[in-house]
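Subject — a protein and its fold
Encoding — discrete vocabulary of local shapes:
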Amino acid sequence: MSAASGSLVLALLMACAAIQVDTGFDRNADFSRYKTYFWLGRPASGNASVDRRIVELVDAALRSKGWRKVGEGKGDAALDAEVLTEEEERNDTYYDGWTLNQNLGPADTVVTTFREGTLIVNVLDGRSMRPVWRGVAHETISENPAENEALAGQAIAKMFAAFPPAPASH
């Protein structure tokens, strides 16, 4: 991935107001016992500054939840993050006329190419390396690096808004 597409990765997370974020977790995990973490795998988008910013944002989100970063292999939890990008196409057809629920006349089809980005953050149990939580954010990547950085911040804030999950009631 080139540096330009790497900066687009953050753009992906910043371009639209409707960032799609999904989270899931192991309902049997006791999140009250997780207070420290280490990075097992950092994002590798091909752009070191983008990767560094994602790590900073996740670290800040976890700090705000009372978690503390510790040396590799020494935490209650391990973090893993991935950044994926994919080129997408959308075809929109426009007709010159319309009557009685039918499109009439000549049509023009406009093909729009855009980059879609996905950020995945996994939290694993630090001892067993069993996944206990996952956050996934999807967004269209912008050409503007500052916009992408803002999107990354929004995506990570949304991802960690309800973190850690409340204990399951039995």
